[in-house]
Amino acid sequence: MITHYRKSQRKIAMGLLSFHKHLKHEHPSLKEIDHYEERDQYELYCYYYDEAANNIQGVLGVEVLNDHELILHDISLNPSYRGEGLGFVMLDQLQNRYPDYQIIGTKATAAYLAKWHRRIEN
Asked: Can you give the pTM of this predicted structure?
């Protein structure tokens, strides 16, 4: 389940964001947690695979562009959980949270979003 990021989750969220090394080259400022904490149009979500365990396994960072578009800036999952389709689950939950919005990608996230869209279409 995705939930809004809280400052008490700062260290784990920073750690998960650091897994996406190629995103640092595209938008280094978006790798900073402060960016999400200080700007109203930016939202960071934490993903819990097992809520009972209370461990964050992934993060999603988005920008609310306007009344019908979100930009996916960051998506990162704990390497132990990769390959299980949980990144797509995170995006499904994000879309459920914003049902009237189109999720668009950046240069760094567009390819992953395209895979997610193809999965939905099949």
From this structure: 0.84
Please give the structure tokens belonging to residue 77.
């999952």
**Residues 6 or more apart from 71 whose CB is under 8 A from it?**
62, 63, 65, 103, 104, 105, 106
Domain spans of the chain, in order of start: 2-121
Closest by CA position to 14, among listed 36, 35, 32: 32
Cβ atoms of residues 42 and 61 within 8 Å: yes
Please answer whether residues 117 and 26 qualify as being in contact, where contact means their C-beta atoms are separated by less than 8 angstroms: no
Cβ atoms within 10 Å of 96's Cβ, excluding its own: 9
Q: Top-level CATH class of 2-121?
A: alpha beta
Place of tokens 């109203």: 40
Mean pLDDT value across the chain: 84
Instruction: Name which residue leads in pLDDT, 7 or 102.
Output: 102
Q: What is the pLDDT of residues 16-35, one digit of tens each?
A: 877 765 555 555 544 577 78
